[in-house]
């Protein structure tokens, strides 16, 4: 249990802003000696109270000093427990944003009694002091690392407690059934279990559906958070690099009329109407004796194994050949969009021709006529991607999206335990068997919120945080 984790009670300090020259820098301090330390190093207006004596949530202008030496002109924010991020006395020093001056102030704070904070230790204290649960703590780093609007919104909803509340409600129902079973086994004369197995089976079915819904959200949640791994493939000079440039809005790939210009994989992250695409432009797939080109072709084929989405570029001004046949053979198990590029020119390959080749291989990938030169069909490509991954529309109406592999794993384990309860009921096993697996499901869910988390798990999670958070 997280209550059993030994919490350090000394005062911690860290630079909370980026270690680069900027307009402002923040040094954060949290712990029972925060006000004692700031009183030693802060100099305000003549006759001003010590900061330990001022009201909470107030800001004060003055200087940070080491003895008689002034280090910087600052604004100091005073926050008294328990109404703080960590639920401890907290001081934030807003200074000029130079790397040297921030380091000097941090060194002074440490000199007068604080110690350097460990990565994520401020948020860890917020968790240990009960202000947030473990799922909310993880959402803090997700907010910081959000790559698009939907990822940010999902993380903010989780930070506000959406997932925590859902998990706690499911867990509360499970614990209620555990308590009933244990009570009935301890006092069978007064608590009857007649007909209980069927009732429990219905409850398990309802709870299982709730967990399945959360697990189903994990696929979209992961794609919104991490981005759709998108590989562009095709023959040389089909327009792959032009497409990548159109998507990214910049000249990130060299485009020439010379076939084989791209010889290695180029990677770019693109925000496409709120969706993040991790785009890889590959070398043209074709038979070649050129050693460097051959390595590029092999890398292009290898990249398909990591792809969530394949964009197959076809030069509509040329006929399909054996290289296209080879590429088509690589697409059977991948979500794919076929783009007939150069549709502004006279077509030698039509949509019907491509459909025919796909049908021969039992595939039904969408085919779009586009022109990267004229930027025709870009909107249709965006809509098709949304349709393939998000049923045509991305919306966010307070739904819970699982974006965390750890949370997904514990949800699956909890669901497995509930399925074992159902199996025990169907096998007419004794009631104490139900209790064993219900307890297991409860503990797996408790690992998500932190109520059953081990010290090692907590430490591992917070070790991934940045310093000062």
Per DSSP, the total helix count is 15
- Beta-strand percentage? 15-25%
Average residue-wise pLDDT: 83
Shape: flat
Q: Distance N terminus to C terminus?
A: 23 Å
The major pleated sheet works out as: 7 strands, mixed
- Rg is 30 Å
Give me the secondary-structure category: alpha/beta
Please give the number of β-strands.
13
Helix content: 40-55%
Can you tell me the residue ranges where pLDDT is under 50 for at least 5 consecutive residues? 1-9, 253-264
How do the helices and strands follow one another from N- to C-terminus? EEHEEEEHEHHHHHEHEEHEHEHEHHHH
Order of neighbouring strands in the sheet with most strands: 3-4-5-6-2-1-7
Describe this structure in words.
- The chain is an alpha/beta fold.
- Helix content is 45%, strand content 17%.
- It contains 15 helices and 13 strands.
- A 7-stranded mixed sheet has the order 3-4-5-6-2-1-7. The chain has a 6-stranded mixed sheet with strand order 9-10-8-11-12-13, with helices on both faces.
- Strand 12, helix 11 and strand 13 form a beta-alpha-beta unit.
- Helix 6 packs antiparallel against helix 14, helix 7 packs antiparallel against helix 13 and helix 13 packs antiparallel against helix 14.
- It is flat.
- The relative contact order is 0.13.
- The N terminus is likely disordered.
């Amino acid at each position: 249990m997280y209550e059993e984790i030994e919490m350090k009670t000394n005062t911690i300090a860290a630079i909370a802003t980026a270690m680069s020259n900027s307009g402002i820098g923040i040094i954060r301090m949290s712990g029972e000696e925060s006000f004692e330390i700031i009183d030693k190093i802060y100099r305000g207006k003549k006759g001003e109270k010590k900061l330990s004596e001022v009201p909470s949530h107030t800001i004060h202008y003055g200087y940070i000093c080491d003895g008689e030496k002034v280090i910087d002109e600052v604004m100091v924010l005073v926050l008294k427990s328990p109404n703080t991020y960590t639920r401890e006395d907290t001081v934030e020093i807003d200074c000029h944003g130079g790397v040297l001056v921030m380091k000097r102030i941090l060194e002074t704070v440490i000199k007068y009694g604080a110690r350097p904070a460990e990565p994520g230790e401020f948020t860890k204290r917020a968790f240990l002091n009960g202000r947030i649960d473990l799922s909310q703590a993880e959402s803090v780093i997700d907010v910081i690392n959000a790559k698009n609007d939907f990822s940010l919104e999902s993380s903010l909803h989780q930070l506000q407690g959406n997932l925590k509340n859902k998990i706690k409600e499911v867990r509360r129902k499970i614990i209620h059934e555990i308590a009933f079973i244990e009570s009935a086994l301890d006092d069978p004369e007064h608590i009857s279990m007649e007909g209980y197995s069927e009732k429990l089976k219905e409850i398990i079915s309802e709870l299982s559906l709730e967990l399945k819904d959360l697990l189903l959200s994990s696929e979209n949640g992961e794609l919104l958070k991490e981005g759709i791994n998108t590989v562009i493939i095709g023959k040389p000079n089909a327009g792959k690099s032009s497409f990548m440039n159109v998507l990214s809005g910049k000249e990130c790939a060299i485009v020439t009329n010379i076939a084989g210009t791209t010889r290695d994989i180029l990677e770019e992250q693109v925000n496409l109407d709120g969706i993040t695409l991790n785009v890889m432009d590959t070398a043209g797939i074709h038979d070649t004796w050129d050693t460097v080109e051959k390595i590029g072709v092999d890398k292009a084929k290898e990249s398909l194994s990591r792809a969530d989405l394949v964009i197959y570029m076809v030069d509509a001004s040329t006929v399909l050949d054996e290289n296209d046949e080879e590429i088509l053979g690589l697409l059977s198990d991948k979500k794919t969009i076929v783009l007939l590029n150069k549709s502004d020119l006279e077509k030698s390959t039509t949509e019907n021709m491509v459909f025919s080749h796909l049908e021969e291989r039992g595939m039904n990938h969408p085919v779009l006529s586009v022109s990267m030169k004229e930027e025709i069909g870009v909107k249709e490509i965006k809509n098709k991607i949304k349709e393939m991954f998000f049923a045509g529309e991305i919306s966010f109406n307070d739904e819970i999206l699982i974006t965390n592999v750890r949370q997904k794993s514990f949800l699956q384990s909890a669901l497995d335990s509930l399925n074992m309860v159902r199996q025990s009921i169907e096998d007419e096993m004794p009631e104490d068997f139900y209790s064993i697996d219900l307890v297991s499901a409860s503990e797996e869910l408790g690992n998500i919120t932190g109520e059953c988390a081990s010290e090692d798990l907590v430490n591992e999670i917070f070790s991934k945080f940045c310093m000062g958070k």
